[in-house]
Amino acid sequence: MILDMLYKAVLKPIFFRFDPEYVHDQMTAKGVFFSNHALTRSLIGAAYDYHGQDIGKTVDGLRYRTPFLLSAGFDYNGQLPLILPHIGLGGEEVGSVTARACEGNPKPRLTRLPKSKSIIVNKGLRNEGVDKIIERLKDYKAKKQPSVSALWASGEPKVVSGTDFIVGISIARTNDDKSVPIEAGIQDYLYSFKRLNEESVGDYYTLNISCPNAFGAEAFNQPQLLRRLLTAIKTVPSKKPLYVKMPINIPWPQFEALLKIIDEFGLNGVVIGNLNKDYSSLEFREEAPEVFKGGLSGKPCTHLSTDLIYKTRDAFGKRFTIIGVGGVLSPETAAEKFEAGADLVQLITGMIYEGPGLIKKLCRAFASRGRISMS
Ligand SMILES: Cc1cc2nc3c(=O)[nH]c(=O)nc-3n(C[C@H](O)[C@H](O)[C@H](O)COP(=O)(O)O)c2cc1C
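^ thats the input. predicted complex w/ flavin mononucleotide below
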């Protein structure tokens, strides 16, 4: 495809000369600009959207136009939901959002490791805070295009670019020392969860208990603390699907203990999973800094997450919705996630290394492999 060649031969070498966070901010600004005009949305859609047979999926009552979502951490302030459906995505996870705004960790917050197809992520939950993001997403809801079912009822075509796009919201605890004590951390999650539900913003919610680069570390990966968090969360009336974003570096017995608690509290499922904290799994250690902080995205996550998806499906059958994420860099790695038991697949790093055209490729491969073998 010409656009993929253009990305890899021209754009990517230029982008990769600049600081990754600067490039990300520039791309977000362009995305906002393209979002604002019907013409630019259509042009992006003509180039990058998937227009083949219907590969939509309904999961926990939500209709996704395609089973591929942008994972949490890219559109962390919720600025892009009007443009993302035009590049083949069926949804995105905004955030992680926190009760109070977070500046993020000291720079560098992102470091590319091109040979390893990975990024060292030390963002520290940089975001504008839940209240500001709620206001932005309310504005998006007002501008959102009609759903496919509404168009269908009016006799228009069934697969329409930009419709049936699901906006999930990932919730984490504020990255500062005030939210480190356990009760303060729980209240922090609770505030965001309450506000989102009160305003009915977001189609589903994910509790991110596995951010490897924040104050207070990953305390809620401890089963007894997850129980306390979910006890508090369950006091809030909510009609939206609720998931937990899982760590991928803990031993299976601890992972399974967390799943049992998630089951007990009646949550819909899990996102498997977050960044890889094991630097020894880097294929090309020499391209990484001597000392580095944060987690690894991309290829070093592929097998760890696929294996945990498989084990979760094997141990719990159909009990959980599983959103598979980590190192989806090609149609083959996406297929592995579905074959292991994922209902939906998310990605970020693949899109950065392969270009936005990757999503259309994933959709086409999903359509041609057949929904039975991949879903
Ligand atoms: C730049 C960046 C920022 C991220 N920030 C978050 C975040 O705020 N919350 C979260 O749950 N995951 C975050 N993640 C993790 C991703 O959502 C995903 O789980 C991980 O990168 C593995 O997927 P990938 O290999 O497709 O990138 C971030 C990842 C990247 C690359």
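The pocket of flavin mononucleotide is lined by residues 71-73, 76, 95-96, 110, 119, 121, 123, 125, 170, 208, 211, 245, 274-275, 297-298, 301, 325-328, 347-350 (CB under 6 Å).
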